[in-house]
Specification:
The protein folds into two domains: 156 residues, Lyase, Ornithine Decarboxylase, Chain A, domain 1 (Beta Barrel), CATH 2.40.37.10; 243 residues, Alpha-Beta Barrel (TIM Barrel), CATH 3.20.20.10. β8, α6 and β9 form a beta-alpha-beta unit. With 414 residues, the chain is α/β, with parallel strands linked by helices. Strands 4, 14, 15, 16, 17, 18, 19, 20 and 21 form a nine-stranded mixed beta sheet that branches. α5 crosses α6 and α8 runs parallel beside α9. Bound molecules: pyridoxal-5'-phosphate. The site of pyridoxal-5'-phosphate (PLP) has 16 residues, from α10. Pathway: Amino-acid biosynthesis; L-lysine biosynthesis via DAP pathway; L-lysine from DL-2,6-diaminopimelate: step 1/1. Its EC number is 4.1.1.20. Homodimer.
Length: 414
């Protein structure tokens, strides 16, 4: 799937030139490819064909309504982590019976909202959350379907900020305590035990920790069955990695087949919660070079996108490919690609060998996941427009914010 490729030297999104998109919508601007979104979902659909399985897209990776709409139309479910994401998913046409609700801090109000919507499952992350959910459901005269997020204590070997399956993480319940907690859940009114889930981290490039986690979870599934607690589904979480630079990201098949083998004859519905894998390489951030400041020690290219738009480089030291929209000519030199925000950490790339001129358009690749979703208004910068390309069609799926909108909720003193 080459959603973004050069035609006559100019980078295109599907059939649309990025020069045209910049002229029409300005920069910085997020550009998504519908075909790429559909192709990444189709990779999962192929592996899961004929199985009782559901892909629940992790909304937090990119929560634009149009992105959710593309997945909802193909029958995907959604993994949400807040009441806001629930409202978004419903607004995008999601089937609530295909929504699972993850997160360590669900409020009573969020639980009420999700119970009223009749979602598929609450992925519960602590004992007090079980008690609260039981009470809230009782108040509404409802029964809450639950799964416990179990922490399998495997090392996913990823960035510490995005590793979630170790004992020291805030997520999930300890493996050793899971059986007792399931028993406690079974004793509570207004809950029905539906499944078990885990999510061990993000941007995982090795299928082995997934399989190791599943082995531990299946041991627990058997212990639960021996205790009369029979589960309906197993949710393997998300975390499948993508290629940003030269990583060997396994195919979806390579991730899933070892797990699906272990699940054969288990009579468990399989849920998955991929986020990054579905959207990461389906989006880019289009930006323009404002100023060049070549120097003795470093050469700075100041672009109109910044850390408030794409936080990943500043936050995790992430590497994103940065490519010129028009095929480059002339001598290259190493450039620090930086934004206008008043922080030294405001960089998008270090030491990139490029031939740059003021006014050039650059595409920051692999920006579809945790890009716009993590953007902020720091420095009172309006968030960028989002555009979805579909063949030769272009849809503005979120217009650029205005400066006035940024302070519209504020008041001067009386
Ligand atoms: C963030 C998250 C995901 C998605 O992670 P990706 O690495 O984007 O696939 C899935 N499930 C849970 C519970 C999460 O917190």
């Amino acid at each position: 799937m080459t959603a973004f490729a050069r035609r006559n030297g100019v980078l295109h999104a599907e059939s649309v030139s990025l020069i045209d998109l910049a002229a029409r919508f300005g920069t910085p601007c997020w550009v998504y490819s519908r075909a790429a979104l559909e192709a990444s979902l189709a990779e999962f659909e192929r592996e899961l064909a004929g199985l009782d399985a559901l892909v629940c897209y992790a909304v937090k990776a990119n929560s634009n309504l149009a992105v959710l709409d593309v997945f909802a139309r193909r029958g995907a479910g959604f993994d949400i982590v807040s009441g806001g994401e629930l409202r978004r998913a419903l607004a995008a046409g999601a089937d609530p019976r295909r929504i699972v609700f993850s997160g360590v801090g669900k409020t009573a109000a969020e639980m009420e909202l999700a119970l009223a919507a009749d979602i598929l499952c609450f992925n519960v992350e602590s004992a007090p959350e079980l008690d609260r959910l039981s009470a809230v459901a009782g108040r509404l005269g409802k029964t809450a379907p639950i799964s416990l997020r179990v922490n399998p204590d495997v090392d996913a070997k990823t960035h510490p900020y995005i590793s979630t399956g170790l004992k020291e993480n805030k997520f999930g319940v300890a493996y050793e305590e899971a059986l007792a907690l399931y028993r406690h859940a079974a004793s509570l009114p207004n809950l029905t035990i539906s499944g078990i889930d885990c999510h061990i981290g993000s941007q995982l490039l090795d299928p082995a920790p997934f399989a190791a986690a599943l082995d531990k979870i299946l041991t627990l599934v058997d212990q639960l069955a021996a205790n009369g607690i029979v589960l309906h589904h197993i949710d393997l979480g998300g975390g499948l990695g993508i290629r940003y630079r030269d990583e060997d990201a396994p195919t979806v098949q390579a991730y899933l087949q070892p797990m699906l083998q272990k699940l054969r004859d288990r009579h468990l519905q399989v849920l998955l919660e991929p986020g990054r894998r579905l959207v990461g390489n389906a989006g880019l951030l289009l930006t323009r070079v404002e100023y060049l400041k070549p120097g003795e020690v470093k050469n700075f290219a100041i672009v109109d996108a910044a850390m408030n738009d794409l936080a990943r480089p500043a936050l995790y030291g992430s590497w994103h490919d940065i490519v010129p929209v028009v095929a480059p000519q002339g001598a290259t030199r190493p450039w620090e690609i930086v934004g206008p925000v008043c922080e030294s950490g405001d960089f998008l790339g270090h030491g990139r060998d490029l031939a740059l001129a003021t006014g050039d358009l650059l595409a920051i690749m692999s920006a579809g996941a945790y890009g716009m979703a993590m953007s902020s208004n720091y420095n009172s910068r309006p968030r960028a427009a989002e555009v979805m390309v579909d063949g030769a069609d272009v849809h503005l799926v979120r217009r650029r914010e205005t400066a006035e909108e940024l302070y519209a909720l504020e008041q001067r003193l009386p």
